[in-house]
Specification:
Blueprint (H helix, E strand, L loop, with lengths): L2 H27 L1 H12 L11 H32 L9 H35 L5 H36 L11 H13 L3
Helix pairs in contact: 1-3, 1-5, 2-3, 3-4, 4-5
Length: 197
């Protein structure tokens, strides 16, 4: 394997790992705890935040998540571009593995980009709208928010499934045999010192 191809392979594995890890951590270990924490803070007896009630706590959690979303989908997109562009760095023994890997990476990238460009901003705007305006406008915005939020979550989960598949397929990437193992190098250097006068 040439140095350039080795470098591209490293970029592919690192970008795929960072992408999959970020989506896994956010989807399963960040979003719900932040929302729960917002609700818990709103329910504290001393009301140190000056807010009260479950709706206010949910709003607080949503605002905290907005700060993450401002970067989260663009981070995914950047990792996705790097992973997809370098997906062909390995000469694959099996063309179907290469094709499947490229298709699932393209799908995950498309879903991340859809969230970055359209779904995320749409959900953010509706999150704000459901707390302002007349009660009827707030109810209508809350209904639209719930719909688009589910679509965004589904896109993120589908992207995670694609990344799980791509990461699993990375195990099928061809390996090159090292030119010499560490034991071979030590054995050779020891035999050379034995022959010295």
């Amino acid at each position: 394997m040439s140095r350039a191809r080795s470098f591209l392979s490293v970029v592919h594995v690192v970008s795929l790992s960072l992408w999959f890890g970020a989506v896994t951590f956010f989807a399963f270990f960040t979003a719900l705890p932040i929302l729960d924490k917002g609700r818990a803070l709103a329910a504290t007896p001393d009301k140190w935040l000056g807010i009260a009630g479950e709706e206010a706590g949910t709003r607080l959690g949503g605002e905290m998540l907005s700060a993450v979303f401002a970067h989260y989908f663009w981070y995914q997109t950047a990792c996705g571009v790097a992973a997809w562009l370098t997906a062909g760095a390995w000469p694959s023994r099996s063309t179907w593995i290469r094709r499947v890997r490229q298709v699932v990476l393209a799908a995950a990238l498309g879903l991340a980009l859809a969230n970055a460009v359209y779904l995320g901003p749409q959900v953010h705007a509706l999150r704000q709208a459901r707390y302002t305006g007349t009660p009827a406008a707030r109810r209508e915005a809350a209904g639209r928010f719930a719909k688009w939020h589910r679509v965004s979550l589904a896109a993120d989960l589908a992207g995670w499934c694609c990344l799980l598949a791509a990461t699993t397929l990375a195990g099928a990437l061809p390996r090159t045999a090292p030119s010499a193992s560490a034991c071979d190098v030590l054995r050779d250097s020891a035999s050379r010192t034995d022959t010295l006068p």
